[in-house]
Amino acid sequence: xxxxxxxxxxxxxxxxxxxxxxxxxxxxxxxxxxxxxxxxxxxxxxxxxxxxxxxxxxxxxxxxxxxxxxxxxxxxxxxxxxxxxxxxxxxxxxxxxxxxxxxxxxxxxxxxxxxxxxxxxxxxxxxxxxxxxxxxxxxxxxxxxxxxxxxxxxxxxxxxxxxxxxxxxxxxxxxxxxxxxxxxxxxxxxxxxxxxxxxxxxxxxxxxxxxxxxxxxxxxxxxxxxxxxxxxxxxxxxxxxxxxxxxxxxxxxxxxxxxxxxxxxxxxxxxxxxxxxxxxxxxxxxxxxxxxxxxxxxxxxxxxxxxxxxxxxxxxxxxxxxxxxxxxxxxxxxxxxxxxxxxxxxxxxxxxxxxxxxxxxxxxxxxxxxxxxxxxxxxxxxxxxxxxxxxxxxxx
Length: 396
Known about the structure:
Blueprint: E1 2-3, H1 9-12, H2 17-27, E2 31-34, H3 37-43, E3 57-58, E4 61-62, E5 66-70, E6 73-82, H4 85-91, E7 98-103, H5 106-119, E8 126-129, H6 136-145, E9 150-153, H7 155-163, H8 167-190, H9 197-210, E10 214-222, E11 240-249, E12 252-261, H10 267-284, H11 293-305, E13 313-319, E14 352-361, E15 365-375, E16 380-383, E17 390-392
Parallel strand pairs: 2-8, 6-7, 8-9, 12-17
Antiparallel strand pairs: 1-7, 2-5, 3-4, 5-6, 10-11, 11-12, 13-14, 14-15, 15-16
Helix pairs in contact: 2-7, 5-6, 8-9, 10-11
Organism: Mesorhizobium robiniae
Keywords: Aminopeptidase, Hydrolase, Protease
GO molecular function: aminopeptidase activity
C-alpha cells in the first residue's frame, strides 16, 4: 500500500513537533530515519504492530519499521512498514501523510526509505539514524545509495525527545505501575509453604495478564539466596521473598520490587527493610523539578554510606518510559553501561524515575525496594505506592 501525502498532517501529529524540530536543529539533523520499535512507536503516537511485538525475525530477514520525519516538514513524513500493516491503516489511519505498507525485510524497507528521502529532496542531507537499531545490510544499502548524505547518530536526540512525558504517557506509566504492584501483592498472598519459584513466576504472569498488563519478566529470590533466576526452589516458613517484575501497559513500562514474608517478620528483618526505606526516602526528598540529577544521587548515596548495611547495599536510579532505562541518565555504568549524561542537568517536570535500593544481606537474603516516581514542580508523584513493607504470604 502506498498512500499519497495528505493536507492535514500538522494538525494530527501525535507529538510536540516544534520541540522535536528544535532538538533536531541542536543535533545538526535535517531528517530523521527512526528504526527502533520504541522510537517509531513514539513518533506514531503509541502504535506498535502486534504481529512483530514478540519477535522481529521472519524468513531470511526481519521486520524493520521506519519513520521518516523532516525537520520543519511534517507534510513530508512517511511510515514504512510491513505489508499487513495496510489493514492497521484502514482501521486506524497513521498520521504520516505517506505510508508504504509494502515490506517483508530490511532491504525493501531501506530501499523505500532511500526512495522517499530522494523524493523529498533529502538525498544529500544530514540524516539522523539509530546505529544500534539499523541492521548492517540496511545501513550498507543506504550508505551506497546516498553517498553524499551525512549519516548522524540520532540516539541522544531521540532519548531527549522522550525524556519529558506527556500527560497521556504519565497515565500509562501510572497504570502500568499500579497493575504490576497489584499483581505482585496478589502473588505474594497466593504463594504458600512449598510453592516453588517457577510456580510463583507463572502465577505472577497470570496475575499481570489478567489485569491487562503485558508480562515481561520476574526476578525472584527466596530465603537467604541472592539468585533471582527461576528454579524448583520452594518457599519455606520464615523466609523472605523479593519479587521484582517488569511488564508494560500499552508499551509503557512498570518496574517495581516488593518484599514478602512467609510468617511474621522478626525484629532484624523489620530493621533491615527500614534501612532500605531510609535510603529510598532520602532520594525522594531531593526529587523535584530544578534539582540537579546528580545531587539526588549523591544525597541518597551519602545517607547509605552512613548506614550499617552499606557494605552489602547498593543504590541506583534511572529514567524509564517506553524502555526500562532511558533519559534522564543519572549514573555512569551503574550497573547498565551508559554515561550519566543528566547528572549535571536539572530534573524537569514530567520526567519519570525508577529509584531502587538493593541489599544483599549475607544471611537474611535479598531485600529490595524499587519505586517509580514522576517529577513535579513541587516534588514528585509515586506510582504503585502500596505494599512497601513486609507483605504476608499464604493469606489469599
